[in-house]
Amino acid sequence: MASEPLLQVRGLKVRFATEDGTVRAVDGVDFELERGQVLGIVGESGSGKSVTALTVLGLTRATNTMFEGEVVYKGTNLLTMPERQLRAIRGKEIAMIFQDPMTSLNPVYRVGKQIVEAILTHEDIGKRIARRRAVELLKQVGIPNPEQRVDDFPHQFSGGMRQRAMIAMALANNPDVLIADEPTTALDVTIQAQIIELIDRLKDDFNSSVILITHDLGVVADVADEILVMYAGRVVERAAKRSLFYDSQMPYTWGLLGSIPRLDQPKGGRLASIKGAPPSLINLPTGCKFRPRCPHAFEKCAEEPELVNRVEERSHLDRCWLPVDEKRTLREATIKGEVAAA
Fold it and tell me: At residue 112, does pLDDT exceed 60?
């Protein structure tokens, strides 16, 4: 008998009441995370990626927030769990690497002290033992001279080293689930590759599952097992990595793939781009939410497509009315930028 997924998100909706109207930040998201799996969540800013992750951790609870659905971790719905119980899970069993380590690390406390505090919050051990563990964690994430650097302040670390320190803090209590929210933002490409490789290696060392959030499909190309593409608060395509890269079914995904530099493109050529901007989450368009930006939209797109399987591979889901055979003809031209948005 197959074991239950470690984390299940079912029909998750997150809405924020504002003076301008209700923001539908997350609108019916479903996914499962198996033990040891790397799940990539990809999309432009404002697509609902980070809000989904923050809601899993219970960090979007406020008087103006409305929830629907379930976030089931080890058989328990985290959305209905009291804050006190959730705090025992947050940081210990489910941990998060935030986007900007410079604002996530407290500038007036030494890096080692902040890691020690993360350990002592969840474990009844002495400060000396916790400090030794902090040094060992800094060593595991590749910080040179960890015995000395443990007493440095965040401003004494480079951007890449601050991100490594954040990873060390997230792994301090051997979490089952590690959520990495744009962990390579503002880092150069060499450091980006090192950070992604580090997360992938530490996933095995700590036996953790990973949710990797990014706007760049190139970031998840090597490490993700499954990829969710989000747009306007909902999942528009979901597939195993290879299927998504080689047989993507959603024009929005084609646009994201077109923004990645390719070796088969002419040198000095322009990357393809998605015309327009993501829609307002207060006033969403009717029908397919990508329709106003899609170069292939037709009459049927005025109706809302469901996230269903439309190809032979049953685990490949998408929200697009285009016939499968027509998609295969259009996809490569769109990715190469040969099809302009209408």
Answer: yes
List the alpha helices (DSSP H) in the chain: 49-56, 83-89, 101-104, 111-122, 127-140, 146-149, 159-170, 189-205, 217-220, 241-247, 251-258, 324-335
Give the distance from CA 97 to its chain's centroid: 10
In the chain, % of residues over pLDDT 70: 95
Phi and psi of 300, rounded to 5°?
Answer: -60, -25
The CA–CA distances, whole Å, from 222 to 39, 254, 261 equal 12, 18, 15
Sheet holding 7-18, edge to edge: 21-33, 7-18, 65-73, 76-77
Helix H or strand E encompassing 76: strand 76-77
By DSSP bridging, strand 38-42 and strand 226-231 are parallel
Q: What angle do CA 338, 339, 342 make, to 5 degrees?
A: 150
Phi and psi at 101, nearest 5°, equal -65, -25
In whole angstroms, how large is the CA radius of gyration of the chain? 21
Reply yes or no on whether the pLDDT at 294 is more than 60: yes
Residue 272 confidence (pLDDT) above 80: no
Question: How far lies 98's CA from each of 50, 193, 325, 338, in Å?
Answer: 9, 17, 41, 37
